[in-house]
Design brief:
heterotrimer; A: alpha/beta; Rossmann fold; 3 domains; four-stranded parallel beta sheet; 9 strands; 47% helix; B: alpha+beta; Uridine Diphospho-n-acetylenolpyruvylglucosamine Reductase, domain 2; Uridine Diphospho-n-acetylenolpyruvylglucosamine Reductase, domain 3; Vanillyl-alcohol Oxidase, Chain A, domain 3; eight-stranded antiparallel beta sheet; five-stranded antiparallel beta sheet; 39% helix
């Protein structure tokens, strides 16, 4: 059988989706939040199928449904054809963009991406002591763009955990780049991605291990770099994987709190990271589960450029994700992805606090006493506080 | 394309004050999506690239029952049809906007209210997705017990509107058996509730007059459904019977003894064979499959290319592949070229009579497979254990051979898999569909034989019996047909349905057990109900005097595809 | 309209031409037999006894031509509104239409004419080991047509549900004389259940001529049991708990202290207590299982088993084999959902106390959706049931209190749906001849 991503394989995926009685609809967070039938995976794939067959001419409005996907892969859990609508739709975006009918809000995206990436790379230097920055260490920390942009104070908390967990001196990657390049793929610019990825991979080459704070970056570096033929010899680990591998040296001090863990899609469904964060958290708190969790987790709305292309829907997704916790009387939600953490926090209802795994563990351990470290960036605490405009986020 | 003179702009202007800009769409992509459901006849058009014949003028997403009422009033004042839309999972064209109008998507109304412990009634809004609803109940310790193979797709409102049935209906009943009341916005624009203890109200049971109305009387916005405590115990078993009649007799005895297994599925010889061939079990669970996301091979590029039409190559898999596989000796299968395979599919399905015989009773005798039955019981521990003992005893007395737990467990794991088999068949150039009829036990074997014979002239056909009652049972036919072009395929499809429906009526069965009527069976409603249609017509005229609610359906006015 | 009837010289002849000699009468003595207070003078009231659905269709067509009402008379008591004093028109008595048309023992389905009494049907079924099922014996007094077309309380069984759910098909004559036969299937998905339009519609949408009903094999075993509970509400809770556990008993009854003393004797109950009586039926093991589920539910609510003989007494009274000492009809009946039953019980007791009277209460006709509370008002000075006048005076306040606590009063027509019903009626019966006084807007 040919590869699912060969031209024949993709054609088959598109046809199978077109003829399928929508069996994955329950799992598509974008269509669940918008209730728009055109955004269920089956309809989006059908849209692309009709475009590629030339039955519908390529145009911005005709290609618009292709942008209603966060690439969260939840649909694949329910697909017995093993289709991959996320990646196929991203291909469709690239095709639309190359035909000049990409998303109108993303026409100058590569330039904006570059600017932001440079700005954030600069920003890391403001928040991290000089001696913790470096371009060539054995173990490097790559926080990811949203972590730098929205929660820079968390970086030093992460470092404190790493210091306890390993004898290696972990340094924050100071390579002039903050992002592994996933947004370029999701925005329909695979060529720009290839160029960017090659640079990042080259700069990280000297590290034996890269601890990566962004779930999409983990996936991108592990999987998509290889697909582009970029050889990554560096071991890429998410923060929870790195800590779980050194569980005897991660904080252990159960304060009797219970927290919910939100699985980032790009960790659970792309990289199989489900147990590691729970092991780390269980050392300091009782871990409670969302009714949809693990590989069945529900996306926060931050993926696939959705905050740029359909910002209201993206926010609605995050709000919907947390509604269950509010209904159960509120609580703390921990996650291990800068983007999830940002999306969830800005849409958190009253009584729900959202925090990053490394910040929560570090705070709980008292490794770096900082009583209101989590409080000051949980808009949920002040429900009337105006939301930060999502356009400041170039989150995946 | 039929698009009656409706002024979309004027309509949108009137609706905007009710729902705002964001919840109205006139986008081409949306109008295309909402122009169909999962009716297989439409998939033939879609495969061949012919535009679908009907389109809505607007899609509207209400969020409250009050908004629905206002929308209905606007539609009424402008004479515009409204087509309530849930999951769009229907297989009879029930949501096709034959006269244009407003596709009213109810999925923004999906709240599940609190459940009273004693009443065991749950008030749920029409737009709630089936699987979401069932999981929500599970977290609270309940189940609705309704597991249609469309549960991932369909909505509660759709279930109520079509009198749906789930795979565990022998215990929990169909939706109409589990409903205490509905809230509906009628075609006059009033909001009505039909709750109340049936026996304490005089006049007819309004709930039973609105359930099954398929959007033709009004918009069902919520329903009070009877839930059960989540089962403490579930027991599953497979049995084998020498032939279908023996199995049917066993089903009848179980139900008439007052036993209520949740699952009772009896497959005819051909379906048993296909089940055995489909294997299942070869797909890893989601948590393992997701350990590493599949990606393009190294160096192939992070994003695959969008293929052109030339990439469309047939694969031998799924239903048709199995048929072909069965008909070609194993040592020769590997050597078949793609095109030869396609020819084989065509050859098989173009001679349905021959192959129905080969694959049906003949195959069964040759392979000694007999008929497979899946039995499952669930509920409170003590009662379920007792009921299971009695049920298994009854099956053995009826000549069933116990196959152990494995077939039952496998069925449970793959119980929604059938819905995934449409894609390969359609891609291979065939069409597949299902026909679910029902009758009392006395007529059931006749019904099976005559409907099977009617379909077998046109397509490869198999059947199972999966919803049993003390007084009768439904029969679920699955069939696959083939023709060399769209026109011929549609002609074959229509002819098949016409003869199947006529055979069902002649044999004293009903033309639909749980899929509903839609457009597909609209023309057969008069044969089904005959003079009783007068009551349905009076009901329609009273609830929807201007015929704006899903017009052209339920045999109420000239419908069907032009 | 009535004036035309009066002048019609040959209505009787025309009716006789349809139903045959001797089956149409306007003699006051004959009318009195069916409980009609006949007026000696005009307007004329004719009682006809048709022998087939075709004859009923003819009668309805005749009534259409002459614009005179056609109303059913049944075998049993009917709600007051269904029929009053004689009025101009045709009364149809179905006693000649009392045949079993088809008995399908394979499917356990019987097709019976509407004039057969349910009791007589049971007699026909019994020798074959068949039965309509465990419905309250009181409803068997009606004809099948009356049982289905008039909705009175308690036509329900915890084992089989509401009586209308046993209907698989209905034949009826519509207001224009058309005959309809809804087709039989165990379940269907071809639009609304049209047979259910005729059930409960009291001969207004159509005149039921025959029905296809589900029947049951006589259960292999039946167990009776009795439990004493600390109070009435605990006994209700025990019922709810058992039903949650999937128990499907054949019959259940809950007596308050006074009712228990009256029905079962002083030995059954302690002061303030209540008695739960249960019959379970089915395959022996399941019937025993249900009996045990009820016992453990009762025990969980502080109950203790008492002598089975109390249950046997109840069962004999229920099946008419023994006279019930409390033969007086209850003063009022209300239905309530499980969750409201306790509150309704409290409310009506409180309202009675406020009026200075006592009550005697029992709950029966349980099904998964609720039960009926039967209340007898007692004069505290005599300990006997209130006299009719006093009862009428007190009933209103108690009913209102029960209603406020969530009870449904029996016999109400849901007002929100009345316009729709009236509209259907006009369309199916444009001449307005079909039992015109029944189910009038807001009637009780």
């Amino acid at each position: 059988m040919s590869s699912p991503f060969s031209p024949e394989g993709v054609a088959k995926q598109l046809d199978y989706c077109t003829y399928c009685p929508k069996m994955c609809r329950l799992a598509c967070p974008v269509s669940n939040a918008s209730a728009r039938e055109t955004l269920i995976p089956q309809a989006k794939m059908d849209t692309l199928n009709q475009l590629r067959r030339g039955r519908v001419p390529w145009s911005e409005p005709a290609a618009e449904p292709l942008w209603g996907c966060t690439g969260c892969r939840h649909c694949t859990v329910y697909c017995e054809h093993d289709n991959e609508p996320g990646l196929v739709l991203f291909s469709g975006r690239a095709e639309a963009t190359s035909r000049g009918v990409g998303h109108p809000r993303l026409t100058d995206y590569p330039a904006r991406f570059r600017n932001r990436d440079e700005r954030l790379a600069e920003r890391v230097r403001e928040h991290v002591p000089r001696d913790r920055l470096g371009a060539d260490t054995t173990v490097t920390f790559f926080p990811g763009c949203d972590a730098i942009d929205k929660a820079p104070e968390g970086i030093s908390k992460a470092l404190s955990l790493f210091d306890a967990a390993t004898d290696d001196r972990v340094q924050v990657a100071d390579i002039g780049r903050a992002c592994a390049g996933y947004p370029l793929l999701a925005a329909g610019y695979p060529d720009m991605f290839r160029w960017h990825a090659a640079k990042v991979a080259g700069d990280l080459k000297r590290a034996r291990t890269a601890i990566v704070g962004c779930s999409a970056c983990v996936y991108t570096m592990r999987t998509q770099y290889a697909a582009e033929g970029i050889n990554v010899s560096t071991e890429v680990l998410s923060v929870p994987e790195f800590l779980a591998d050194r569980i005897s040296r991660t904080p252990k001090r159960n304060r009797g709190e219970s927290v919910y863990y939100h699985d980032p899609c790009y960790l659970s469904r792309y990289a199989g990271v489900v147990e590691a964060p729970r092991r780390v958290l269980a050392q300091i708190a009782d871990v409670r589960e969302f009714s949809w969790s693990g590989v069945d987790t529900v996306c926060c709305g931050g993926g696939g450029m959705l905050p740029k292309t359909m910002p209201e829907t993206a926010d609605a997704m995050a709000a919907q994700r947390l509604r269950e916790i509010a209904q159960r009387g509120g609580g703390t939600v921990v996650t291990s992805c800068g983007t999830c953490s940002y999306m969830l926090a800005r849409n958190a209802p009253r009584g729900v606090e959202v925090t990053d795994l490394h910040a929560y563990v570090a705070d709980a351990a008292g490794a770096q006493p900082s009583p209101d470290a989590t409080g000051d960036r949980a808009p949920g605490a002040e429900p009337s506080a105006p939301k930060r405009p999502s356009s400041t986020s170039d989150a995946p | 394309m039929t698009r009656p003179a409706i002024d979309s702009d004027r309509l949108a202007r009137a609706l905007r004050p009710i729902v705002g800009d964001d919840r109205i769409s006139a986008k081409e992509t949306d109008l295309t999506t909402y122009s169909r459901d999962m009716w297989p006849r439409l998939l033939i058009s879609i495969r061949e690239g012919t535009p679908l014949p009907h389109r809505a003028h607007l899609v509207v997403w209400p969020e409250t029952v009050g908004e629905v009422a206002e929308i209905v009033r606007v539609a009424r004042s402008q004479g515009v049809p409204i087509i309530p839309y849930g999951g769009g999972s229907g297989v009879c064209g029930g949501t096709v906007p034959v006269k244009g109008g407003i596709a009213l998507d109810l999925k923004r109304m999906s709240a599940v209210a609190k459940i009273d412990r004693d009443d065991l009634i749950c008030d749920v809004q029409a737009g709630a997705n089936g699987e979401h609803f069932e999981r929500e109940l599970a977290t609270r310790g309940y189940t609705f017990g309704h597991f249609p193979s469309s549960i991932y797709v369909s909505t509660v409102g759709g279930w109520v509107a079509t009198r749906a049935a789930g795979q565990m209906s022998s215990k929990y009943g169909k939706v109409e058996d589990r409903i205490a009341g509905v809230t509906m916005v009628t075609g006059r624009g009033d909001i009505i509730d039909t709750d109340g203890l049936a026996r304490s109200h005089r006049g007819p049971s309004w709930t039973q007059l609105l359930v099954g109305s398929e959007g033709t009387l009004g918009v069902i916005t919520s329903a009070r459904l009877r839930v059960s405590p989540a089962p403490e115990l579930r027991v599953l078993r497979g049995y084998s019977f020498p032939d279908l009649i023996g199995g049917i007799e066993a089903l009848r005895r179980i139900m008439q003894r007052g036993l209520r297994p949740a699952v009772l599925r009896l497959y005819d010889e051909f379906d048993t064979l296909m089940n055995a061939l489909s294997g299942g079990g070869d797909r890893a669970p989601a948590d393992i499959r997701h350990h590493h996301a599949p990606s393009p091979p190294a160096g192939a590029g992070a994003l695959p290319r969008v293929p052109t039409q030339s990439a469309d190559v047939e694969e031998r898999s799924g239903l048709l592949g199995q048929i072909v596989g069965q008909l070609v000796p194993k040592d020769r299968r590997r050597g078949l070229t793609q095109s030869l395979r396609r020819e084989l599919v065509a050859a098989t399905l173009s001679r349905p009579r021959l192959f129905n015989n080969v694959a049906g009773p003949v195959a069964s005798r040759g392979l000694r497979r007999g008929c497979r039955m899946i039995v499952g019981l669930e509920g409170s521990r003590v009662r379920t254990e007792t009921e299971a003992r009695l049920t298994f005893g009854e099956l053995e007395r009826a000549g069933g051979v116990d196959l152990g737990e494995e077939p039952g467990r496998r069925w449970l794991e793959h119980r929604y898999s059938v819905s995934y088999k449409m894609s390969p068949a359609f891609r291979a150039g065939a069409f597949v569909d299902t026909m679910e009829v029902a009758s009392t036990w006395e007529r059931l074997v006749d019904l099976y034989r005559s409907v099977r014979a009617a379909i077998a002239k046109h397509a490869l056909v198999m059947a199972h019996l999966s919803h049993a009652y003390p007084e009768g049972c439904s029969i679920y036919f699955t069939f696959a047909g083939y023709a060399d072009n769209q026109k011929h395929a549609e002609k074959l499809y229509d002819e098949l349905w016409r003869s199947g429906m006529e055979a069902a009526t002649r044999a004293g069965g009903t033309i639909s057990h749980h899929h509903g009527v839609g457009l597909l069976k609209s023309l057969h409603m008069r044969e089904e109900h005959r003079e009783s249609m007068a009551i349905l017509e009076a009901l329609k005229a009273s609830m929807d005097p201007d015929d704006i609610m899903n017009p052209g359906k339920l045999g109420l006015s000239a419908g069907g595809l032009s | 309209m009535t004036a035309r009837v009066a002048r019609a010289p040959n209505l009787g002849e025309e009716l006789e031409a349809i139903v045959g000699h001797g089956h149409a009468t306007d003699r006051p003595a004959h009318l009195a037999e069916v409980g009609i207070r006949a007026a000696a003078s005009e307007p004329a009231t004719w009682l006809v006894r048709p022998g087939s659905g075709a004859e009923i269709a003819e009668i309805v067509r005749l009534a259409n031509r002459r614009h005179i009402p056609v109303s059913p008379v049944g075998a049993a008591a009917r709600p007051p509104a269904a029929l009053g004093a004689a009025e101009a028109g045709i009364l149809v008595d179905l006693r000649r239409m009392s045949h079993v048309l088809h008995l399908d023992e394979t499917s356990l389905v019987v097709h019976v004419q509407a004039g057969l009494s349910a009791h007589a049907l049971e007699h026909i079924l019994a020798p074959r080991g068949l039965s309509l099922g465990d419905f309250p014996p009181a409803i068997l007094a009606s004809t099948v047509g009356g049982m289905l077309s008039v909705r009175t309380p308690g036509k329900s069984s915890p084992r089989h549900g509401f009586i209308e759910e046993a209907v698989l098909g209905i034949s009826a004559v519509l207001g224009d004389g058309r005959s309809i036969h809804t087709r039989v299937a165990p379940r269907r998905a071809t639009g609304p259940d049209l047979a259910r339009a005729l059930c409960g519609s009291e001969g207004t949408l159509g005149f039921i001529t025959s029905a296809v009903l589900r029947i049951h094999r006589r259960p292999e075993a039946r167990f009776l049991s009795a439990h004493h509970l600390p109070d009435f509400e605990a006994a209700l809770s025990a019922v709810h708990l058992a039903m949650r556990e999937d128990a499907a008993p054949a019959a259940l009854r809950v007596y308050d202290e006074r009712q228990a003393r009256a029905g079962l004797g002083d030995g059954a109950v302690r002061p303030g207590g209540a008695v739960l009586l249960a019959a379970t039926a089915g395959p022996t093991d399941l019937a025993a299982c249900d009996r045990d589920l009820i016992a453990s539910s009762a025990s969980a609510l502080g109950g203790t088993p008492i002598a089975e003989s109390f249950a046997e007494t109840w069962w004999r009274q229920r099946t008419g084999r023994e006279d019930s000492p409390s033969a007086a009809l209850p003063s009022l009946q209300v239905s309530a959902r499980p969750s409201r039953q306790a509150a309704v019980h409290r409310a009506l007791r409180a309202a009675a106390a406020e009026a200075g009277i006592e009550v005697c209460v029992y709950a029966s006709r349980f099904d998964p959706y609720g039960a009926v509370l039967f209340v007898t008002l007692i004069d505290p000075s005599t300990g006997e049931a209130l006299g009719a006048q006093a009862e009428d005076a007190a009933r209103g306040a108690i009913e209102r209190a029960a209603e406020q606590a969530g009870a449904a009063l029996l016999g109400a027509v849901p007002p929100a749906l009345t316009p729709y019903f009236e509209d259907m009626r006009r369309r199916l019966d444009p001449a307005g001849i079909m039992n015109p006084r029944a189910l009038a807007s807001g009637s009780e």
